[in-house]
Amino acid sequence: MNPNSTMSVGSAPLHVVLRRRRKELNLIQAQVAEALDVTPECITLWEGGRRRMELSKLPRIAKVLQLDAKQLCQKALAEFHPPVFEALFGRTGIHPSFAPTSDVAGETFQVAENEERLQKLEGAV
User: Fold this and answer.
1) Which helix (H) or strand (E) holds 30?
2) The pTM is what?
3) Distance between CA atoms of 21 and 29, rounded to whole angstroms?
4) Which of 51, 84, 89, 112 is the most exposed place for a label (fewest CB within 10 A)?
5) What is the rounded CA–CA span in Å between residue 9 and residue 73?
């Protein structure tokens, strides 16, 4: 894999994804910490699954680790805030970007269903 390309997040737990990707890019924790304006100890805690990162940091984390930002945010929501993820993407917990894309008609239906849920949430706020 080209380390300069954006990588899909995949199905591993978020802390595992972060650690693996950092190592694939041959970065040390201190480099990632500096780029994100956090301490190396913070990176150690994130990668060990002992601390959650702020959701607002996810786009910067995605950029530094060259990950798909949308998928990273969805994964974090699924792991850290399951009720929010379920409200947005449904009970199955499978958003079209995580699911196989062989059934175009079914995927189109899933996207429409997710957009409807999002509109209901926006109306309730």
Assistant:
1) helix 29-36
2) 0.66
3) 11
4) 112
5) 10
Q: What is the DSSP letter of 7?
A: B
pLDDT digits (tens, 9 = 90+) for 60-79: 999 999 999 999 999 999 99
56/77 Cα distance (integer angstroms): 12
Task: Convert 35-82 into a string of H (helix), E (strand) and C (coil).
Answer: HHCCCHHHHHHHHCCCCCCCHHHHHHHHHHHCECHHHHHHHHHHHHCH
Burial 24-57 (b: 16+ CB within 10 A, else e): eeebebeebbeebebeeebbebbbeeeeebeeeb
- Residue 116, Cβ neighbours under 10 Å: how many? 10
How many residues would you count in the chain?
125
